[in-house]
Amino acid sequence: MNNSKDNKYLIYSHRTLNYYSALFQGIFAQQNIFSQLQDSNFNEERIKNVKIALQNIRKHTEDLYKGKLLFSSDESAEKIEQQKTLLSDLAAEKEKLKDQANKIKAIILNENYYQEKENVIFLISSFGQCAYSKDNYVRGILKFNNFFKINTLDNISEYIDENLKQNLELTSEFIKLFKDKDKINPNFYDHLRFSCRTLPGILRTQAHDILQITGKVKEDISFEEADFHSLEAKAWEEAGYNATQAGYWRAFELGVKEASLWKTFNVEDPLIVSEWHSAGFHPEDAKPWMDVLFSPLLAIQWQHAGFTPRDSSLLLRMGYSLPSEVPEDQVDELLKQSVNEIAESENLDLNDE
């Protein structure tokens, strides 16, 4: 597999298999949470089929690492049938993801959602589903990149890896707290709702991914294939976006105006934009917090306490995780101390050079 054509089939084969695996690992996690929390949405037939699907995908993935690709230029009737089965399975999940996104949206729009425990469980299970799906997806890509020495994930970073870990831990925490209902803090429901605010967009993003995977190997999908009407497509094209890119913005219910506005602040990831937008931040307000690597939740807490992004960052460096921990009568002194420590550290670094 030394030429670009072979690499294209290799990458597409892995992309399909890895996405399939990650999607169904997420569904498995969702069903597992339903089971743990004794929810009526637990479906034995569903989890049985998911297990069969995952066993099947493991075999195909093992074959890929042995050089036997699911997609290639030389395809037998048996291989074509295998492709149809896998792509059909993926396509069947697309509408389910959209329906799930709509249900989550309806739940989080209801401030009293927690009065029905089924709503709470559905949010927890959906959060866990997305967390485990993303974790498996990224791990699959990293393994593939390392084995074949091909870079197919340009934006992987320690931040993403840490974020994945945090979401898995948060899933476990949500489950633990829900089980211990007598000790649930009222803030639990607000935190869960806030944490799930981007899930509808994430699930619609997965549906958009499936559209691409089950479509073409070589080309981007068209606006028509992505179900954009002509005027909408024209607006996106004139702004410099293709159908694939526009579909991700639409998944988070963000239009071409929002995309173009955030782009002027060098923020072009619709998920990141959605995280800040849904937390009530305009780009000019969000960017300074993003520059000091604060999450929307952390930024809200420090901003509401009256701190600027710069001062919040300085105090965080000194070990104050929350603004409530900062002694009010020592703020100026602490900020001055932090600035001096940074200056001294920079001088030491210069001397070392």
* Contiguous helical run count: 15
Q: In sequence order, what are the helices and strands, one letter per element?
A: HHHHHHHHHHHHHHH
Shape: globular
Question: Which regions are unreliable across 5 or more consecutive residues at pLDDT < 50?
Answer: none
Largest sheet: none
**In total, how many domains does the architecture comprise?**
2
Classification by helices and strands: mainly alpha
Distance between the termini: 45 Å
CA radius of gyration is 23 Å
Question: Share of helix among residues?
Answer: over 70%
Kindly report the average pLDDT value: 90
Percent of sequence in beta strands: under 5%
The number of distinct β-strands equals 0
What does this protein look like?
The mean pLDDT is 90. The chain has helices at 4-36, 44-65, 77-108, 117-148, 158-179, 187-195, 199-213, 230-238, 243-251, 256-263, 270-277, 283-291, 296-304, 309-317, 331-352. The protein folds into 2 domains: 4-213, no CATH class; 292-353, no CATH class. The two termini are 45 Å apart. The longest helix has 33 residues, at 4-36. 70% of the residues lie in helices and 0% in strands. The protein has 15 helices and no strands. The protein has 353 residues and is mostly helical. Helix 7 runs antiparallel to helix 9 (243-251).
